[in-house]
Amino acid sequence: MQHDLVLDGHGVRLVPLAPDHAPALAAFVDDRIWAGMSSALPVGTDDWVAEVEAARAAPGRLAFAALDAATGEVRGSTSFYDWEPRVPRVEIGHTFFAPRWWGTSNNPACKLLMLGHAFDVWGCVRVALRADSRNTRSVAAITRLGAVPEGVLRQHRLAPDGSRGDTAYFSVLPEEWPGVRAGLLARLAGA
């Protein structure tokens, strides 16, 4: 869905994903970055424009471009999705970053901004995160955030090549948020 939410802090600026971000995404996303996604790798700017438009059109999904706050460089993308304001709950995912940002303060900063908005602004009672269980890098990143493992949904994912995969689910609840926030702030202070 199209939105105007902007989240800014800790060197990162999350802005609504737009077609003008497509060339930058096309320049760095490859098979290694797209591993574990359940859609085919977009190749070239035209495919990325279509990918961006699909993300913007998806109901309950607020897709962001993650930008370097100082330079405006596109670092990657992340989204709120399955947003259910009546419950209220949301998932964070569809996340990928350029390899030069792996292992830096980028992901903790993005997740701090998003979790803070979900709990402190929207009043969520649950924020979930998930990853293909074979994607050890993503599972490790979610675990480092302090999200609680909930289990594995077997044969839950269908990869573009037709193979089936399991989904590892994690969540953060309101009573866990202060500890998760403190952990993310400590990681950012040490970065």
Automatic annotation (TrEMBL):
One of its GO terms (molecular function) is acyltransferase activity, transferring groups other than amino-acyl groups. InterPro entries: Acyl_CoA_acyltransferase (IPR016181), GNAT_dom (IPR000182). The keyword Transferase applies. Signal peptide: none annotated. Keywords: Transferase. Residues 13-147 form the N-acetyltransferase domain. Coiled coil: none annotated. It holds the Pfam family Acetyltransf_3. PANTHER family: BLL6696 PROTEIN, N-ACETYLTRANSFERASE DOMAIN-CONTAINING PROTEIN. This is N-acetyltransferase. It comes from Cellulomonas triticagri. The lineage of its organism: Bacteria, Bacillati, Actinomycetota, Actinomycetes, Micrococcales.
